[in-house]
Fold:
Amino acid sequence: MKKYVAIAGNFDGVPGVHKDQHPNQLLTSGRPKWLAPKYRWALAHRQNLRIRQARILNIYGRLNRHVHFDGKILNPSSRSLGYLVRNRVKSYRERRFTGWDAEHTRLRTNPNVARAVNEFIW
Structure:
């Protein structure tokens, strides 16, 4: 894998699906404060990732400046990919999109997201 784009990823859980999930936050290290069971497993096994040459673009949405989620996935869950792959990939970048068209299901049809993906891939 040379390039990977994640759009609205739920890397560290989905509220209402994981028992005891609550509003989460990233620590200054980038690690999520609350860890979903599968994220905890991935963290314990991240040394097995064979993606040193990969460039990753992580796209997430934020409905407005007062909330930190895209209507379904908390931003710390989406952004927790960075902590998993840090120092294991060639590059890692995040792009946040804000507004009604940054809602979870709308991100994939958002023309600005499509433009960002095209610029990154090509």
Q: What stands out?
A: The longest strand covers residues 55-62. Residues 43 and 84 are 6 Å apart (CA to CA). The helical segments are 37-44, 75-79, 81-85, 111-121.
